[in-house]
Specification:
By secondary structure, the chain is mostly beta strands. 2% of the residues lie in helices and 50% in strands. The chain is elongated. 48% of the residues are buried.
């Protein structure tokens, strides 16, 4: 254990085909040149709390390398190459009342190959502490084809972190083809990438049953890519980026099936990404690049004569003080030979507008006292700017049945992809090929909408949004290709190029079947309405051309209707057909007898009634059928709507 013997070093470790039952696993913390741990079987990993609980010990199935932060003079001596494969670990139960960590497999090494391991039932009695099925700190290598069931209470089944010492940097690490299942519901997240990861690929993993999400990325990632992963029966936000700055990252080709609406019990857990009270929106993928994340700790003065509980070496958790506008955050102080070496962030907190500080001497949150016999040291923090510098979301597939739930009525919306940033210089953003199918259920008393792309916070200066497809048998109401709130928008010269489909649907008594289509190219939106089946008089929402546009005023400049096919016939009464907007634009096409459409006077540019005011109204298109029913017909209504941004 390098904590007690920091200069210890082993040339090679091999553990092969061994078996351990009802005992602790292996802790091999000495630095080594290479290690191979293969084909071992560990059943019921545990230790007697009466003997070990006095220090709140950690418990591992396999621990290879120093998972804590090493003093800098020994950092280069961490394990170089580690192979951990084909091991079976069933049941790691830490019953300590105050455990430090519980992990099925922990590997801290420069290079790793962690593959084809089976890990099940990793848990601890104290749910506030970390428990992971597989945890690694590495610079490069591969984590693949591992199978985890109920892999970690309180945290995640798989945790990817950085190199052992200093700011976490996981570089050139590929995490792929792992399978994560949660049966008990006690493993909140399938896979978490901690720290400021660089060149980390998270690909082709299958995750199911995790109540707080499938994959979460923290820190300020650079060239981190989350691609072709599947999230099935997961709650929370299946793909969540909670980051400071995001640089050249990608979240593409992922698929969501059967997303769960979080229950009040789910939302009470600390890791759940939803607010604990009030309304919330359901997201498939949410990207938060926000200021207020603590990016780094820096020791500005002091540096001699510090000890922890009288020991010359060790580490202790410390809390932050001061700061404003945020919450959370914490760090570990590392002492070597009685000298304060580093303060490393472990929990960055959220929402800080003024960075908190740490002042030495410290009192650790675990009761450890750091005494000072020399000068004091101030530890300052640096806040992130909350900036996105190129983010690509391509080929996102969402399959599920999200909507109003009577037992949990405060869910208001479902959004396939949500981008939020605090820095107005962010960009470019590429959101392409969002495919949302069978999402949303309509309840007569509860409005609910589906959105392909949502923008929050500061505007994205350069970006484009293309191929937004919203399809669904239950989703005929309030469907939007994209939505913006506050001052958010894509740059006005960006390429919107959106299209979306509606129906079949039963909404407000109106039935639309088969699909109707909207195509937006440049500043023209074309609406196709198919009268294959309409029954019951109703005003039926068709869709939104520009949802919540906040970067100016949308003005309708021209409306050109066309009627294709035989004349409509009536089942009763004398129905009329009108096409219009819910607010701001009035009727685009005046009510006309259902037998056809005659000439229609287009709105004139400059008429205030044709403006959709920024941040006030959406350009929603409605079809009004009044006065009677319409028989099924092959007739098609085609309307071109020209618009412009006037400010």
């Amino acid at each position: 254990d390098r904590t007690d013997y920091p200069a210890s070093f082993v040339d090679e470790i091999v553990i092969d085909s061994c078996r351990a039952i009802d005992s602790p696993g292996w802790e091999l913390r000495a630095a080594c040149n290479s290690a191979t741990i293969t084909r071992n079987n560990l059943l019921r990993v545990r230790r007697d709390p009466a003997i070990w609980d006095m220090e709140g010990y950690a418990l591992y199935g396999i621990c290879l390398g120093d998972g804590d932060d090493a003093p800098p003079e020994y950092a280069q001596a961490i394990t170089q190459n580690a192979i951990v494969s084909q091991n079976i670990i069933r049941g790691v139960s830490n019953d300590s009342t105050n455990p430090m960590f519980t992990r099925g497999i922990l590997v801290a090494a420069s290079g790793v190959l962690i593959t084809n391991n089976i890990i099940t039932d990793v848990s601890q009695a104290n749910g506030d502490k970390e428990a992971h099925g597989l945890y690694t700190k590495a610079q490069y290598g591969c984590v693949s084809d591992n199978y985890l069931v109920d892999g970690g209470t309180g945290q995640s089944a798989i945790a990817i972190k950085g190199k052992s010492y200093g700011a976490p940097i996981a570089k050139e690490l590929r995490v792929h083809h792992n399978r994560v299942r949660t049966v008990s519901g006690d493993c909140p997240v399938g896979l978490i990438v901690y720290g400021s990861s660089t060149d980390v690929l998270v690909e082709d993993n299958s995750i199911s049953g995790c109540p707080d999400g499938a994959i979460t990325v923290y820190g300020s990632p650079v060239r981190t890519k989350v691609r072709r992963n599947t999230a099935t029966d997961c709650g929370g936000i299946p793909f969540l980026w909670v980051c400071g700055d995001i640089t050249d990252c990608e979240c593409s080709g992922n698929e969501i099936a059967g997303q769960r609406v979080p229950t009040p019990g789910d939302r009470a857990r600390p890791t759940n990404p939803y607010p604990k009270s009030g309304t919330y929106q359901l997201y498939g993928t949410k990207v938060n690049a926000f200021a207020g994340t603590i990016k780094a700790f820096t020791i500005t003065s002091g540096g001699s004569g510090y000890t922890i509980n009288g020991k010359p070496d060790g580490s202790a958790a410390v809390a932050l003080s001061g700061g404003s506008g945020g919450s959370g955050g914490g760090a570990y102080a590392t002492i070597a030979a009685g000298v304060l070496i580093s303060v490393v962030p472990m929990d960055q907190g959220v929402g800080w507008t003024v960075a908190p500080t740490v002042t030495i001497p410290l009192v650790g949150t675990d009761g450890a006292v750091i005494a000072c016999s020399g000068s004091q040291a101030s530890v300052g923090t640096v806040l992130s700017t909350g900036k996105i510098s190129t983010f690509v979301a391509n080929g996102v597939r969402v399959r599920g049945n999200m909507g109003y739930v009577a037992s949990n009525p405060d869910a208001t919306a479902y959004e396939c992809l949500c981008i939020s940033t605090d820095d107005g210089t962010s960009g470019p953003l590429i959101a392409d090929d969002m495919d949302v199918v069978d999402n949303g259920a309509w309840d007569d008393a509860h409005p609910f909408y589906i959105v392909g792309l949502s923008l929050l916070g500061q505007p994205i200066q350069v970006g484009r949004s293309e191929r937004m497809r919203l399809l669904g048998s239950q989703s005929g109401r309030r469907m939007r290709p994209w939505r913006a709130s506050g001052i958010s928008t894509l740059h006005r010269f960006g390429n919107y190029g959106t299209r979306f489909h509606l129906g079949p649907a039963s909404v407000d008594g109106g039935i639309i079947q088969p699909q109707n289509r909207f195509n937006t190219i440049g500043n023209r939106t074309r609406v196709f309405v198919n009268f294959t089946l309409y029954a019951v008089a109703a005003q039926t929402y068709l869709g939104t051309i520009l949802g919540g546009q906040s970067g100016g005023v949308v003005r309708i400049t021209k409306v050109t209707p066309r009627f294709i096919g035989p004349a409509l016939t009536v089942a009763s009464g004398t129905p009329t057909v009108a096409l219009g907007t819910a607010g701001g634009g009035g009727q685009l096409i005046a009510a006309t007898l259902a037998t056809g459409l005659g000439s229609v006077t287009s709105p004139v540019d400059g008429t205030p009634a044709n403006d959709v005011v920024a941040g006030v109204t959406d350009l929603d298109i409605y079809l009004t059928i009044a006065g009677g029913n319409i028989n099924a017909s092959s007739s098609v209504l085609c309307v071109d709507i020209d618009w412009t941004l006037t400010a």
